[in-house]
Design brief:
With 721 residues, the protein is mainly beta. Helices cover 5% and strands 42% of the residues. It has a 16-stranded parallel beta sheet that branches. The chain is globular, with a radius of gyration of 28 Å. It starts with a helix and ends in a 7-residue tail after the last strand. The structure holds calcium ion. Calcium ion binds next to strand 24.
């Protein structure tokens, strides 16, 4: 009874206050009307945009509300106003609330989808953007840069919004601090859903950035709190801080490749964040650069990043650094964090001829580190970091860490805490869940279609092209034995599996056998393939936003005149895997991954894996290049194990700018050798336990003086001296 009364009273008060705040309500149904009515609006008015799909709508909102009576501009029904095609939104004015819009099926005609400025002189202040969706709103060319949300001005807020699927270059959400404008922004970014952002394959794939290096020595005072970051893989920086006195607090980061990076600016606080790598490769933690940074009460579990992407990475600086390089770490305080099952913690990261200034007057205290083995690595002089009060369950090499044998128990909040020991992150951390973020009316899920998840079609030679054209994502084309002659390319725009017994023999005279387009991915298994065209599989001829995958298993390639997998510029394969396959008389390259020729660190394949395969008289097994000196990406990664290369062209394997190369347990017989060219950063090359017969020794060299490659050569036999 009491409860009912309470509720009635609450509703009555809500109605009363709504009545007091609101003036007129006007409904509009075009961008022109919107501009006009918003301009005419008085404090407390509400302008509703009629439900519908608006194509090529460039919205401008410019009005003056007051703190007590903001002007509200909203979708008539939240989520039912869709901006598509060449649409954008520019906001001027102050004390506005903008709500309920969806940007989908298009791309901004300008450099920013939503801009907190009307033009270069008119910036917004005290504007709240809430329950807005930007869903895969990408330019068709992934190299063309844009920003989805650009926050200019002061005291603006973006909350309960939904951003996922940014596939082209450019930050998802940025606080812009133009050169010559060092003002505090005091922006708040909270309760947003930052959904999957695929690897970009170059710099410019950050999810959030606050400022740029030019004005990084001034304060932004932006707060980023209680957001959910779900598979934000764009590049090494998930959140890139380039200004001072920002707070990054109570966010949850799930399975995202990259880190919170205090790249430029001083006095930032990173506190009470939960970062769960769940064993996914390259999942990072927090990277510290500059002065007076505090990293406190964070929980990091199961991350697999190393080097710059370690759970905690404290970097070396550049003496007298220019504004855009690395200022020395001073007065860092890293305390009361829990770091559970990390791949690495590193002090003095990036130490090289240029980054020679070690961290000073810094403290690493009262942290909990749980790991099967000592995950710490020090690079150079780390005496400027004082460790004390830390607890670990392994035998630590560093002083200031006490070994205690504890067991971890998962608490009600889903996080692990040591039984009976008060150390590490606080017990009252609260992970951000799906329900806490974004608008309730827009779904969060974004699963990619797995190979083999659809229907299986039996295919005879005469039906091949037709069935391939009609198949749905995840379907399997099961080829019957027979000869399949293909004279024109089979275009693939969804994930398809083509499988067969070895007696299903495909020969192609088309320039390309399988031509991938946007959304395409292919798995080949059990087939026999030969032909006179330029490539068996080729990525899209124009830029694609979706990353693609190629899997080759148990397939024989014989008498192929061109390449097996040929890549094109401005596309990215997330993975190319080859297993238990045979390549015999291949006139081109099996993995041709040199399509990118810019010096900006672009590359065409993130991860290449070759296992248990044989290559006989193959012109080149793999040719992989990532040019330039950029350090923003994890790839390319190259793995070759358990395979045999006999005869063929030289070098058999050529890698340039690959970040991690592992070549183990292979045989090279009368073959071209291995050539590895390292660029900057800390590339890791392992060539071990291979057999080389009448084959040149591996050639490994540095393309640039900076950088600190790690090279492991061991257990190789038969190397000519
Ligand atoms: Ca970056």
């Amino acid at each position: 009874m009491n409860q009912r009364l309470g509720m009635t009273a609450a509703i009555a008060i809500a109605l009363l206050s709504a009545g007091a705040a609101h003036g007129r309500t006007i409904t509009v149904s075009s961008a022109t009307e919107l501009l006009k009515q918003v301009r005419a609006a008085k404090p407390g008015d509400e302008v509703l945009i009629a439900n519908g799909v608006y194509r090529d709508a460039q919205l401008v909102i410019d009005a003056q509300g007051t703190a007590q009576k903001p002007i509200r501009i909203a979708a008539q029904t939240p989520g039912r106003v869709v901006l598509s095609g060449a649409s954008n939104l520019r906001i001027g004015g102050r004390h506005l609330v903008i709500a309920g819009l969806v940007f989908r099926d298009g791309a901004a005609p300008t450099k920013e989808v939503i801009s907190f400025r009307k033009d270069s002189r008119t910036v917004a202040s005290n504007v709240r953007l809430t329950e807005v969706v930007i869903d895969h709103f990408n330019r068709p060319d992934r190299r063309e840069e844009d920003i989805w949300v650009a926050i200019y001005g002061q005291d603006n807020r973006v909350d309960h919004s939904w951003f996922a699927g940014k596939g082209n270059q450019g930050v998802t959400l940025a606080v812009i601090r133009p050169k010559g404008v060092p003002d505090e922004n005091r922006a708040r970014i909270d309760h947003n859903y930052f959904g999957p952002r695929p690897p970009l394959g170059s710099n410019g794939g950050e999810t959030i950035r606050i400022g740029t290096s030019e004005e990084s020595l001034s304060d932004s005072k932006t707060v980023i709190d209680r957001n959910l970051f779900d598979r934000c893989d764009g590049e090494v920086e998930i959140i890139s801080i380039k200004s001072g006195h920002n707070i990054i607090r109570e966010n949850t980061i799930l399975q995202s490749q990259g880190s919170i990076v205090l790249r430029h600016g001083n006095g930032n606080l990173v506190s009470r964040n939960i970062i769960l790598g769940r064993g996914k490769a390259s999942t990072g933690g927090i990277r510290v650069i500059n002065r007076d940074q505090i990293v406190r009460d964070n929980y990091i579990e199961g991350n697999r990043g190393t080097d710059f992407t370690s759970a905690i990475a404290v970097m070396n600086g550049v003496p007298n650094s220019s504004i855009n390089r690395y200022h020395q770490v001073q007065n860092a305080l890293i305390e009361h964090n829990s770091i559970i099952d990390p791949a690495r913690l590193v002090f003095g990261a990036g130490n090289d001829a240029e980054r020679s200034a070690p961290p000073i007057t810094s403290r690493f205290v009262d942290n909990l580190i749980a790991s099967a083995k000592d995950p710490f690595r020090t690079e150079g002089d780390v005496s400027g970091i004082v460790l004390s009060g830390n607890v670990a369950n392994f035998a630590p090499a560093l002083a200031g860490i006490t070994r205690r044998d504890f067991t971890l128990k998962r608490a009600a909040n889903g996080l692990l805490y040591p039984d009976g020991i008060d150390a590490g992150a606080p017990r009252d951390l609260k992970p951000v869940t799906d329900r806490d973020v974004g608008p309730a009316w827009y779904p969060k899920a974004d699963a990619s279609v797995a190979f083999g998840s659809g229907t299986t079609h039996s295919v005879r030679p005469r039906d091949f092209a037709r069935v391939a054209g009609q198949a749905k994502g995840g379907d399997v084309l099961r080829l019957s034995p027979g000869d399949y002659r293909v004279a024109s390319p089979i275009v693939i725009t969804r994930p398809l599996t083509v499988s067969g017994p070895a007696q299903a023999r495909i020969s192609f005279s088309a320039p390309v056998l399988f031509q991938l387009g946007e959304g395409g991915a292919i798995r080949l298994e059990g087939l026999t393939i030969g032909g006179s065209g330029a490539a068996v599989v080729r990525s899209a001829p124009v830029s694609t936003i979706a990353n693609y995958r190629v899997e080759i298993a148990g397939t024989t390639f014989r008498d192929v005149k061109g390449d097996v997998v040929a890549t094109t510029p401005s596309t990215l394969a997330e993975a190319l895997t080859i297993s238990k396959s045979t390549f015999d008389k291949i006139g081109g390259t099996v993995v041709a991954a040199t399509a990118e020729t810019t010096k900006l660190g672009h590359y065409p394949i993130e991860r290449i894996e070759i296992r248990d395969s044989s290559f006989t008289d193959v012109m080149r097994v793999a040719d992989v290049a990532r040019l330039g000196t950029d350090e923003s990406t994890f790839g390319p990664n190259f793995l070759m194990v358990g395979s045999t290369v006999t005869g063929g062209g030289s070098p058999a394997v050529r890698l340039s700018g690959v970040q991690v190369a592992t070549i183990t347990g292979n045989s090279f017989v009368r073959a071209g050798g291995i050539e590895v060219a390292h660029s900057v950063g800390a590339p890791d090359t392992v060539i071990a336990d291979n057999r080389f017969a009448q084959t040149q020794a591996p050639k490994i060299f540095k393309l640039y003086p900076q950088g600190s490659p790690r090279v492991t050569l061991r257990g190789n036999v038969g190397l000519a001296q």
